[in-house]
Amino acid sequence: MPLPLDVRLMNMAAASLLAVFVLLLLGGGAWWLLRHPLFAIQAITVQGEVTRNNAITLRANVVPQLQGNFFTMDLNRTKEAFEAVPWVRGAVVHRDFPNRLRTVLVEHEPMALWGDESANKMVNQQSRVFEANVEDVDIDKLPRLKGPDAQSAAVVQMYRHLLPIFETMDMGIDQLELTPRGSWRVLTDRGALLELGRGTEAEMTAQLQVFFKTLSQVTARYGRTPTALAGADLRHKDGYALRLRGVTTLDTDGKKKL
User: What value, to the nearest 5°, has the Cα angle with vertex 150 and ends 149 and 155?
Assistant: First the structure.
């Protein structure tokens, strides 16, 4: 016989109350579990490349930004906190049950100083500009690159392209600059300033090959070697202007010698 309607309604009400009770019980248990001191973060293990940071600097920069416990902590925000630490290029953060975090860090490897001398900026091997204390590196061994931050990759690429060309003349590049007008400028390790003008890598290569091919001949006419080079302007269409140390084109009366 089917149960009376009132009995069925009572059974449904009882089942509903039981379900609500179970849900409340589970919710309360989860609430207690998520906030239990056992799951508060007790330690952070740091792995990977950590040569320019120590536990003190990491604790001072990262710990104040951490919120939540093992279950509720936002790993993306924690990752961003680590990557905001000077010298840190990337971080991967994992949870280690029940109350630990483990992070793997990758540090910037400086390729060159970046911008003006007053700026604490460098560019890494991936052509990314970053800020850190330049006193942490041997600045005498790094060239200086200049240009808009958004074009750091182009400047690094041009430097890597031009350096072997200069090395064939036993010269190094102390500074390479991409000016706001898009012109390239090189300061050699001997203090010579070369205005290269605008152009692609291929155009710069052709221009420098002509210049270096004739440089020894030109300097020899004045009893000098390429080491006497003080500056050159390669922006002329069919030639270049040259400055040599110890050579002048004017005599004491102000008349041209050459």
Answer: 75
Instruction: Indicate the residue type of 111.
Output: M
Do the beta carbons of residue 103 and residue 92 sit within 8 Å? Answer: yes
SS3 222: coil
**Confidence band, pLDDT 50/70/90 cuts, at residue 81:** very high
pTM for the whole thing?
A: 0.80
| Contact assessment for residue 158 and residue 201, using Cβ atoms and an 8 Å cutoff | yes
Tell me: the pLDDT tens digits for 4-14? 666 566 767 76
Distance CA 84, CA 180 (A): 29
Give 233-254 pLDDT, tens digit per residue: 999 888 899 999 988 876 544 4
Q: How far apart are CA 171 and CA 248, in angstroms?
A: 23
Q: Which helix (H) or strand (E) holds 221?
A: helix 201-221
- The number of residues making up the chain comes to 258
